[in-house]
Amino acid sequence: LEQSNLEGAKALLVPVQPVDIAEAIESLPESMQVIAFRLLSKEEAIAVYEHLDSTVQQALIEKFKQQEVREIVDQMSPDDRVKLFDELPAKIVRRLLEQLSPEERQNTALLLGYEEDTAGRIMTPEYISLKETFTVNLTLERIRRLAITSEVVYYLYVTDASRHLAGIVSLRELVLSSPETTLDEIMTRDVVYVNTNDDQEEVAKIIQRYDLLAVPVVDKEQRLVGVVTVDDVIDILQDEATEDIYALGGVQSDGENYFQTSIVTVARKRVVWLLVLLLTNTVTGTIIKSQVHVLEKMAILTAFIPLLTGTGGNVGAQSSTVVIRGLNTDDMKDLTTKEVVIREMLAGVLLGLMLGTLATIWAYWLQGNWSVSLSVGISLVAIAILASVAGSALPFLFRSLGLDPALMSAPFITTAVDVVGVLIYFSIARTILGI
Amino acid sequence: LEQSNLEGAKALLVPVQPVDIAEAIESLPESMQVIAFRLLSKEEAIAVYEHLDSTVQQALIEKFKQQEVREIVDQMSPDDRVKLFDELPAKIVRRLLEQLSPEERQNTALLLGYEEDTAGRIMTPEYISLKETFTVNLTLERIRRLAITSEVVYYLYVTDASRHLAGIVSLRELVLSSPETTLDEIMTRDVVYVNTNDDQEEVAKIIQRYDLLAVPVVDKEQRLVGVVTVDDVIDILQDEATEDIYALGGVQSDGENYFQTSIVTVARKRVVWLLVLLLTNTVTGTIIKSQVHVLEKMAILTAFIPLLTGTGGNVGAQSSTVVIRGLNTDDMKDLTTKEVVIREMLAGVLLGLMLGTLATIWAYWLQGNWSVSLSVGISLVAIAILASVAGSALPFLFRSLGLDPALMSAPFITTAVDVVGVLIYFSIARTILGI
């Protein structure tokens, strides 16, 4: 391409999938992207454009001629178009909306009217809806007419006069039935559906739970307004998992790709948590300072502080990790909050006893004083139990307060356990050593 | 149900989805499960059984009569059956295999022959394959005959005489074409496929990337042997995310549901990591012990150890979290290893300078000695940079050694940074304070 071998480049691009072409275009220098894009046939161009990263989509839109923009944006599927509009400056969106064909403009305005991250925002309004009285033959004819513009043909929705969802027929059932059957004979009336303002994560869980290819979306009046398809749902599940993982690692996430943001944004995403944790750590420091008289008599006690706070933090991190993940999946469905916390506490007792015994032996080997060693061991058992209970209970507490349980994630638990762990250690050491 | 109101129970169970019935049955006391299960029609029973937890599946199989077992297991879809067989004792599997119809036995043996977590294991061999010369009409007839037993009808596969995959036709295209068209006119020849020994995670990524409903699986001789469907892939992506999250929290996972295992198993899953971390922490302790003479002169230095190790650990945990997640998704695809590590290092410099300044001020406020405060601040900058580099580089190193990058997860980085952090702190403090 860089040698201006346009025909050769065109030949290379033809047989691959749109998503692969999109990736190839993304890897080109910016000035080449428009040229490569113009080599695509009109139909391909739209499919490829839908797969491009939003930053590249934006860059291209600024370079396209008026006519090109209009064609591509008008032909995009409504859900992808709304995703693009979310990223563009409001001024450009307004201009683009005006250029859309009336039908597409209405579709887009409908989706933009719903809140972000809801079923209404991610659905496509281009579904095929039918009447109960249609025969299989008539339906197939209608599909042949409509299917070119519709993303979703594998499930067909039957609605009544007031657009209420009455039933669902799969293309499979349609093909298997004799031509003269009417839809009300073969349709399933017990339809799984979601509401426009349901959270996208809920929608994803429903599609996953019932093994669906798509789920219909109804508005407040129970009228069918759109369909969410399984391919969008996979991306949502993936993004939600990334968000959970970032939260567990103490990194803020807002749906942007971490690796495509500037260093300053990266620092901003991380510094909030670090400041909270720094603040908590200063409390630990203040506690240790108040115990300096103990340390002046027995400096060796310091040697075990990282062991105790470290192990306590790790035990707490384990508990909070499994509980937070459990709250976001179905894994915990059979257990009550109390049962989960008690399970974790028992695990903490077991782990504390094992690790405490080892730590006592190691501490004796390191410095030869049984009183100090016992202080370390007993503190470790207490800290492990406390960490398990805090790690498992705090996410539940946060959820019941209406906050995101992931805020009680590993880094926070680790740091919080530090504070209490140091307190426990000094109390036990002072008692045993009689300082 | 508990009042033996069998007819009532049956009526209640009828209109809901199999997965909901399965959940209702799971929540019943064990003695009731068989009774509830027998109320289902034969067809429903199979669908519900496929959705039960493997522990309940096993319990039921032991209570069923010979005839019931044979019927249900024979009718299950091959991929679900293999999942069940994976959980059952080898003896029972052998007995069940013998009772299967010859065709189903062959299907199952085929899948069991592939390694766990590969495309071959999770595929279903019940796809519909066709010849290029078939007309649309003939194909539709064939589908009507086969579709009852096949899970997958939305994509149809065209093979040549030696069962090599030649193309793919969607049911949508079939319905849209005129009856006399032959398949070679409408099929797509550029098919995305996977190999039997591809990892299931790779399969999931391909289905996700190309927005497919199913992907064909070919063996070493490029012959079509099965199909993996999108609903299985969603569960795989979910499980892999859980595995990653657990690894980041320092909990081993092996696909079992953490909340359904015994406390002893829980302790076993967690103790390995804790022991490794305990061992690392003892190194930190040994280093501190070797510096006791410094602490005896300047006990206040202890007050800042948790701050330094804590913050360093958190910075490192952030870097390793984003890098490990990046390795498991497509987010990092545009960057080289070097670029990622340099980005993280720069973020570490930025974060270190911000936090170091704050820590210096706080340290001075706490104890009024500028030399000590400067030691804390400078150490924090050094530790933040080191933690970012270690947190981002170690997962890459582990991957290039063929190990799971998730082993270099937050708890490990946190603890490793403790060791080096304490060393840096004492070196800097000794230099500045002249001890």
List its salient traits.
homodimer; 435 residues; mainly alpha; MgtE N-terminal fold; CBS-domain; Tetracycline Repressor, domain 2; 3-stranded mixed sheet; 21 helices; 6 strands; 66% helix; elongated
What does this structure look like?
Two copies of one chain form a homodimer. With 435 residues, chain A is mainly α. The first copy, chain A, has three domains: 6-113, MgtE N-terminal fold, CATH 1.25.60; 129-238, CBS-domain (Roll), CATH 3.10.580; 261-433, Orthogonal Bundle (Tetracycline Repressor, domain 2), CATH 1.10.357. Chain A has 21 helices and six strands. Chain A has helices at residues 6-13, 18-26, 30-38, 42-51, 54-63, 66-75, 78-87, 90-99, 102-112, 119-122, 136-146, 171-176, 183-186, 200-209, 230-248, 263-290, 292-297, 305-328, 337-367, 370-400, 410-433, and strands at 129-130, 155-159, 165-170, 194-195, 214-218, 224-229. In chain A, strand 5 and strand 6 form a beta hairpin. In chain A, helix 2 (18-26) crosses helix 4 (42-51), helix 16 (263-290) runs parallel beside helix 21 (410-433) and helix 18 runs parallel beside helix 20 (370-400). At the A-B interface, helix 2, helix 11, helix 12, helix 14 and helix 15 of A face helix 2, helix 11, helix 12, helix 14 and helix 15 of B.
